Amino acid sequence: QVQLVESGGGLVQTGGSLRLSCAASGRDVMGWYRQAPGKQRELVAAFTIGGATNYADAVKGRFTISTDTTKNTVYLQMNSLKPEDTAIYYCNYVRYPLTWGQGTQVTVSS
Fold first, then answer.
1. Which residue, 74, 78, 85, 75, is CA-closest to 35?
2. I need a surface site. Which of 45, 52, 62, 78 has the fewest CB within 10 A?
3. Cβ pair 70, 88 in contact under 8 A
4. What was the pLDDT predicted at 99?
5. What strands lie across the sheet with 18-23, from one edge to the other?
6. In whole angstroms, what is the distance from residue 69 CA to residue 39 CA?
């Protein structure tokens, strides 16, 4: 069973930055999701089949999804973090998702 492993989360102050990483095999387009306490999991950034990127309105201009194919790794660069970005962040394939990993906690203090 292939597992997804996210890393790079932590505690930062408002306005800070973090870069999340996810080991991915390239079997499908990848996305980053997040789930805040008491809320449903939501897609925040993803690649499209054509190689473009899509972002949730709440993170546009602040988050950037990228990939290093030599390392089979997908990143989420998060800048200008806000307290409302606090959540557990997950990576997964968009069209053919695997079992969810444990995610990585991102906490933004005000």
1. 85
2. 52
3. no
4. 92
5. 6-7, 18-23, 73-78, 63-68
6. 32
Q: What is the DSSP letter of 103?
A: -
**What type of residue sits at position 65?**
I
Which H helix or E strand runs over 78?
strand 73-78
Report strand pairing: 73-78 vs 18-23. antiparallel
Q: How confident is the model over 24-47, as pLDDT tens digits? A: 776 789 999 999 999 999 999 999
Query: For 7-110, where are the alpha helices, taking DSSP H only?
Result: none
The Cα angle at residue 3 between residues 21 and 28, in degrees rounded to 5 = 75
Distance CA 30, CA 26 (A): 8
| pLDDT tens for each residue of 77-109 | 999 999 999 999 999 999 999 999 999 999 999
